[in-house]
Write a structure and sequence with these properties.
The chain is an all-beta fold. It has one domain. The protein is 0% helix and 66% strand. The chain has an 8-stranded antiparallel beta barrel with strand order 1-2-3-4-5-6-7-10. The termini are far apart.
Length: 175
Amino acid sequence: MQDFSKKEKTQAPYKYSIGGMIPPTCLGFSFKTFFHNKIAFQTDLFYTVTVTGTINNSKIYPALYPSIDIALNLVYEDKIKKSRNADLLWFIGGGLRAGYAFGNGKIGINTLLGLEYFFSNKPMSFQIDLRPGISMLFNSNNELKDYFFHPKNNPWTHFDWLVGLTLKYTITKIQ
C-alpha cells in the first residue's frame, strides 16, 4: 500500500543561471534565480527590433523600431519530462518591461510562456519563449519622434512581442 502522508519533495532544477539571448529576434543578457522550488525571477537586458502596428482613425499603421529593453519577470516552472541526463521544463509568468527606442521612452507589461531544456550532467540549459505584451512609447516633450511608419500619438500604445532564444550557464549549488 502506498504511503500518501509523505509528499514527494520537488526541487528547483538549479539555483542560478546566467547567459545570453541569441539572434535572430534579440541579442542580450539573461539572469534567472529560483527562490522557491517552482518559482523563479528572471531578468533580461537586450537589444531587439520590434515589428508591430497600431490602429488610428480606422487605419492600420505598421511600425518597425529598434529598442534596448530590460524585462523583469516572475515565472512558475515545472518539469514535463525527466531523463537521466536532462530535464524538459515548461514555464509561464509575466512582468514589466522598460526601454529606450530612438529618443522615446518605453514601458509595458508582458507575459512569458516557454520551454527550458536543462542538462543535469552539464552546467547549461537552453530556453525558448514567447513574450506577448502591450507597451507604450512616449517622449517627455509630448511628440513621438517619427522614424518609421507609426502615427505621432503620445503615448503610442502598441502590441509588443518577442520570441526569445537563450543559452545559459547554470549553477546548481553555492559553495
